[in-house]
Amino acid sequence: MVLEELISKCKNNNPKAQEQLYRLFANKLFGVCLKYSSNYADAQDNLQDGFIIIFKKIEQYSGKGSFEGWCKRIMINNALQKFKGIRYMEVLNESIPDEVVEIEDETVPLDYLMQIIQELPHQYRIVFSLYVLDGYSHQEISEMLSISTGTTKSNLHRARLILKEKIEKRISNHQESSAT
Known about the structure:
Layout: H1 3-11, H2 15-35, H3 40-57, H4 67-81, H5 110-119, H6 122-133, H7 138-145, H8 149-179
Helix pairs in contact: 1-2, 2-3, 2-4, 3-4, 6-8, 7-8
């Protein structure tokens, strides 16, 4: 079935079409939910809640732009709503060092990267995911989370430092175990 036809049937509350749409996008959208959730169970809840919103608001999808992008935006917004009210670390001095966080040319497995991103404190993980993984600007993140751009920059910087430290530690441990 063509996506447009599937969307049309979902707009008419067709349960079989809704199930097909869910099966078509669930895996991709679950990855989005994982980036913005504290753990696997929360990501599952966010996915279910997000699809409920998608099916309730599918009438609003006009056919302009990517349907997958529209769904992704709903998933991100749904996950972020759960963090509203959580106090983000405010920065007293909004000047962020210009130092760039770089890792020497080492291969780091993707599953390890995803694991350590998931382990970041939630405010760092959310800002890191929005900025690095989803390409939002500091201004957009600031508006989405109701925090200053200085705070988004600080949280991103701290997230990168934590990730760099964990990656360097892993590389060092790997090199030590290879040497013995």
